[in-house]
User: Fold these one by one.
Assistant:
Number 1:
Amino acid sequence: MKRTTTWVIGGLFLALLLHIRSNTGLIAQAPGHDDFGLWSVVPAALTLVLCFWTREVISALFIGIAAGGIVSGQFNIIAAYLLPAVGTESYAQILLVYLWCLGGLIGLWSRTGGARYFARWAGERIVRGRRTAKLFGCFIGTVFHQGGTISTILAGSTVKPVSDQAGVSHEELSYIIDSTASPIAAVVPFNVWPAYVAGLVVGTIPLFATTDDAVSFFFKAILFNFYGILAVVFVYTFALEINPFVFGKMKRAMERVKATGELDAPGAKTMSSRELDELKIPEGYRTGNMDFVLPILTLIGVAVGGLVFTGRVPINEAFVLAVLVAMGVAMMKGMTLNDVMDGFVDGVKGVSLGAIILALAVTLGRVSSSLGTAGFLIRTTSEIIVPPLLPAILMAVCMVIAFSVGSSWGTYAVVFPIAMPLAHAVNPDPFFIILCFGAVVGGAVWGDQCSPISDTTILSSLSTGSDHMDHVATQMPMASLAAGIALVLYTVIAFLAF
């Protein structure tokens, strides 16, 4: 129904836009400028409005791209925008890391059972009560964060039996799993995030002349992703029960489970996660810690080693070697090549929808670039923006957008190609750029984490067996407090620095 609504509304708007272009001559490049004036923002704005209205991201992205084709007069949007966007080196890197390596690695773990085995093995040795159970949940969420939504399922469904036995409410557990998904991925980015963002910002300002420049900048900006850092600090202190900001429904959930042992609030409509517990381990295969530990150590070791010895993070090499190690371990332990490849292919299939969203998001970024969207916004707003307020403004905008569309990556696709040139025009100082960069990353993470329509929010509820809206209501106060502190930090630092 939502998708139908998107197409109906979008189709009507596209028809109106086509009529305007064909019959009025109003749509044209602004005299003396490399943009289409106010029309330059139509594709991005239309995409955002449809996402706000219908909560359907894929259709909204495609309609936004089509609107860009009408504004520019490039009606063959596949040849003009889609193929050039997905044919780039940066998008090929995203496919390699995200679709093949990351998805394949998760698929291999579904065959070997390595990740689940490691979690249960570690849980038996760590968990001694409520605090250690929650700390274990943080640990598993941190270790498993590389797989995005897939790892949210894996972490939640793995930790749930242990935390249930220890008397951890489902509201607490779902908050832990959600807060160790996107926030961890943004501040410990040994994953596809740097490559994806690099594909969006490369070439937008001199600092991002190459993809490697943009990837390196992502890592430099980690210390300035204040929301991501605070979210991680909040969840770990919450697990240790030393966080002073626990109040409202979350505090009542903790008091309830301690007093009555009830894992859910009265009347809660819990989301079952039993279907997520199924593995496809071949008969006779003996699962062990090597199935998980060796690939993960390879991934982290190559990534960190590259950063230490060469100054760059070899994301591609790290993931390719991790997959090869996982395959090698499985076959050395007796798994057939057919089973290994079946697991790899299943994992690739599992993230194919994400690859489609990425392709459309990168294409929309190319549309905005061709229409001069960033240039238009820069020349109309750069003179009226108070520079020290821009990082906080960008973070707040990303919070609203990501909360409304339920996607940090979709938000990045719309905001980053515009935000970086705008920040550079307002103040080209690299420190100012890094503040704005961190603000965009963190703001979108808050929206993705807190939005009730976000895939990670939904899957956190599903994998932990929580009532979805109870999870949203108990998580949002602490996450919002962390976001508020981050907004203040950006403003204070920007004013002091400039």
Number 2:
Amino acid sequence: MTDDLPSVAVQDASTPLCAVEEVPDGKALAVSALFDGEEASLLLLRRGDEVRAFLNVCPHAGRQLDWAPGEFLFSSAKLVCAAHGATFSVPDGLCVAGPCRGESLREVPVDIRSGAVFLQPS
């Protein structure tokens, strides 16, 4: 599921997912990390200095949002699910159009420290 993504074995809050500048402003970056004890594809969304992380899973169809590993569709500065066109605002992950309107991507808590994105300890 996550073979083509940058992968970090995040087991504690001391290993960064990536540097903030690796997440394109207004866009997304996918990384593979351990979350809740399992390897998961995480989606990082950035707007300016704010970076938020979500499971890379559409709440409508339960499939990954990218059309190819780590490749995402955007329209009018919003993330679009490649399967059914659900549209999500950046960086809050709220579905603003499509089959799951009003729902949100499942957020994964992160911290920004020293210019890097870290999972918050569970």
